[in-house]
Design goal:
about 450 residues; Aminopeptidase; single chain; 17 strands; 2 domains; about 20% strand; alpha/beta; Alpha-Beta Plaits; 14 helices
Length: about 450
Amino acid sequence: MTTIAEAIDQYLADHLNASLEEVKRLCAQPSVSARGEGIEACAALVADILQAHGFAAQLFQTPGHPVVVGTATGRSARTLLCYNHYDVQPPEPLDLWTTPPFQPDIRAGALYARGAKDDKGEFIARLAAVDAVRAAHGGQLPCNVTFVVEGEEEIGSAHFAEFVLANTGLLAAQGAIWEEGSIDASGAPVCWLGPRGLLYVELAVATMTRDAHSDSAHVLPNAAWRLLRALATLKDERERVLIPGFYDDALPLSEREHAIIEQYYDGGAAETASRAAYGVERFVNGKSGLAWTEAVFNPTCNIAGLTAGYQGPGSKTVIPAHASAKVDFRLVPDQDPRDILTKLRAHLDQQGFPDVTVTTLGGMGYPYKQDPEHPLIQLSLRTGKEVYGKTGRIVPLIGGTSPVYAIARPLGNIPVISPGVGYWDNKAHAPNEHVRLADFQNAARHIGRIVDGFAEL
């Protein structure tokens, strides 16, 4: 007799090509939130796709980009929420793509396109899983499933928390599957317990009304040097952030978290893969082994970009009048991005840089973490082992930021899990982003088992 799990797997295998065509259709629609490209059209397409999969879809306008919500009713009163986003990162530099970013291409066992992994491939894999579970149960889901798909995740989800607070009834759930997930370098599924927070700012300074000839550098102030001196006050050579009070609320790695990292340590596989992927000879502060894994509990201050003066081909002897830098801070529990912003401003003033302006970019992300013993997390680990043949690895904190807090807290601190289509080098946010077809299929199988078992938790 065919089991539910076998029926799910067979359905997904039979419909793989149709699912991949759907990924291609969605990825072919540009949706670059940073510049508003294709956003409205993509939101409408997401609503159409949800309806085609048996969901009642609603498109909500926000002060920013639209949010799409799809709901499907099951036998149980319990609801599993899936959070995704339809916006993508800018595709530049275009010349580094083998095929155009919005012309999806399948080759060498992978689908290449901007959004193939982050986050359109994830979205379609989840819909495929829901279809498979529905079919395995004779046309009815065992639990309610709600999708909430936003369009500003790649620019900080500035309006998402407000949307959730205004729609807690519509989004009420007892657990959630987050935007993306992956297997590690050893092939084991990763289950993280929370993301870091984020404060993203632009620092800018103007020393003159216009650029000047560098023959006057002995008397005219250079904005680039002014900004560099301000930036140099933010962090020392050992990566210690020098803003007074920056670490006041940062929770250190606990004994329990250290024990989890030790228990699930991959023997350095992720470190080795990272070294190979980025061509790194020496990591920050020489971190290696367990210390490399635990370093994610260190909040960061990162210069993401610098702009000043002439940067074209050849030479141009100028004194820059304006200079700016984009700076992001990754924050750990219980740091508050608004508090860090206030302390940053005070620090610059105290260091003699009141002329350096601070502008926030995108929304502010709050860190979040949860209990590894929750039944939903254990269900994800158990079913992940069934699919991948390896015990899932719990990661107490991931380096990136996602608005988990915006859903989990307003809905009653619900548990959040992260099964997904990724692996350690999908090149998300970079040229040649892709999803491997085997990973897509396995993620759908994993999520199908989670949906199947959720009603009984």
